[in-house]
Design a protein that fits this description.
Low-confidence stretches: 178-183
Radius of gyration: 27 Å
Helix content: over 70%
Structural class: mainly alpha
Distance between the termini: 88 Å
């Protein structure tokens, strides 16, 4: 390479890097924080066992006729409330599983979007106004996703309780209410 070409290459490199905007450290910190929270949400959702929902759906399929038969019988209030609540939760299990999977996918997508935004901030691809708008939008989406994650966790805990109470419900379904239901 001759000196003229080398000099021109160096000048182009210097001009390109000189025109590059310096990333706003505060914006980078906000995006990094959002990335961390979305990754944590994704890890949490990944740890929750989807099989609980499917076991509940299988219980509903297996015991649906028993529930309907007991609902047609005369039940004391406590037994009726227990069966009705349990039945409703079992009916919701499949929907809860789908919500769980959708929120898991949404947190993974949000993490990728945020990483792309971070790269755009570092490369100077966005001006100040666009970067501020993008961060505000991502912050809003992250808040919504956080609420959805909390709802999935609540649903998961509900399903844990439903499965834990299955023996007592089986007792009511068979017509032998035991002391577990009278607490």
């Amino acid at each position: 390479m001759n000196r003229g070409t080398a000099f021109a290459s160096i000048m182009v490199f210097v001009a390109l890097t000189a025109c590059r905007t310096v990333p706003n450290a505060e914006q980078i910190a906000v995006v990094d924080s959002l990335i961390t929270s979305m990754e944590a949400a994704n890890l949490t959702l990944n740890e929750l066992d989807l099989d609980r929902y499917y076991r509940a759906s299988m219980i509903l399929q297996k015991d649906s006729s028993r529930f309907k038969q007991r609902f047609s019988d005369t039940l004391d209030r406590a037994s009726a409330m227990t069966l009705a609540g349990h039945y409703v939760h079992l009916q919701q299990a499949e929907h809860m599983a789908l919500d769980h999977q959708q929120v898991y996918s949404a947190t993974a997508e949000a993490t990728n979007r945020l990483k792309d935004l971070r790269n755009d901030l570092f490369s100077g691809a966005l001006d100040e106004s666009n970067s501020t708008n993008a961060i505000s939008l991502e912050r809003l989406k992250a808040e919504q996703l956080s609420e959805m994650v909390h709802q999935v966790i609540t649903n998961y805990r509900t399903m844990q309780t439903v499965l834990a109470n299955q023996a007592a419900v089986d007792s009511v379904l068979s017509g032998h209410e035991d002391k577990l239901l009278q607490r």
